[in-house]
Amino acid sequence: GENVEQHPSTLSVQEGDSAVIKCTYSDSASNYFPWYKQELGKRPQLIIDIRSNVGEKKDQRIAVTLNKTAKHFSLHITETQPEDSAVYFCAASLPGANSKLTFGKGITLSVRP
Amino acid sequence: KAGVTQTPRYLIKTRGQQVTLSCSPISGHRSVSWYQQTPGQGLQFLFEYFSETQRNKGNFPGRFSGRQFSNSRSEMNVSTLELGDSALYLCASSLVRDREQFFGPGTRLTVL
Predict the structure, then answer these.
(1) Nearest to A49 among B40, B55, B100 (CB)
(2) Could you tell me which residues come within 8 angstroms of residue A17 by beta carbon, excluding any fewer than 6 positions away?
(3) Strands (DSSP E) found in B1-112
(4) Which of A105, B93, B95, B106 could form a disulfide with B88 if both were Cys (CB 3.0 to 4.6 A apart)?
(5) Residue B102 with chain A: CB contacts under 8 Å
(6) Nearest-CA distance from A42 to chain B in Å?
């Protein structure tokens, strides 16, 4: 089955700097890659997603890039703010009957004021 | 539109007991997935239901089961509870499969 790994497991940045979180996946047939943000004590919420027919997607300060050849995708957050501090999960999904989200173990992002 | 709701929010059980958790998806959503969240392990997929049928199952023992009703509400059951079953159980709904999933607040299960 699919396996998703996130690196690093923790990341600390200064407010205003950029943060990059990388994920790798194992099954080249995966075609959907969402990113979820989970603040302390709250439910995970989708912040951005990308499909395999697209190489990059942006939404204000957040962007996701996908490299299908290398089987990795990254979350980019620019001009980080303290409210960006949270756990970020990447996930990958196979299409069709095997469709299910396989999540990475999460990365804790801390933004220092 | 009301979000995904889960009941109860907290549960304390003892080893050997069984428990049933409930999830009400967003109105119109037909797919419901269940996840177990533990520190350091992230979100682990339990199963997915779509139109009252289990479509996919994760690598959990048979003590974990679920079902979905005609109104798309879903329940999961864990029998013969073990200490290691202590976790946050999240359900998520989506309009159709392979689309954005919206999570509920979770049920915090503690097994003593």
Answers:
(1) B100
(2) A80
(3) 5-7, 10-13, 19-24, 31-38, 42-50, 53-57, 64-68, 74-78, 87-94, 102-103, 107-111
(4) B106
(5) 46
(6) 7
Output b/e per residue, A58-95; b: 16+ Cβ within 10 A. Answer: eeeebbbbbeeeeebbbbbbeebeeebbbbbbbbbbbe
pLDDT in tens, B29-85: 999 999 999 987 889 999 999 999 999 999 999 999 999 999 999 999 999 999 999
Give chain B positions within 8 Å (CB) of A104. Answer: 42
Rounded to the nearest 5 degrees, what angle is found at the Cα of B40, between the Cα atoms of B37 and B45? 35
Summarize pLDDT for A69-80 with one digit per residue, the tens: 999 999 999 999
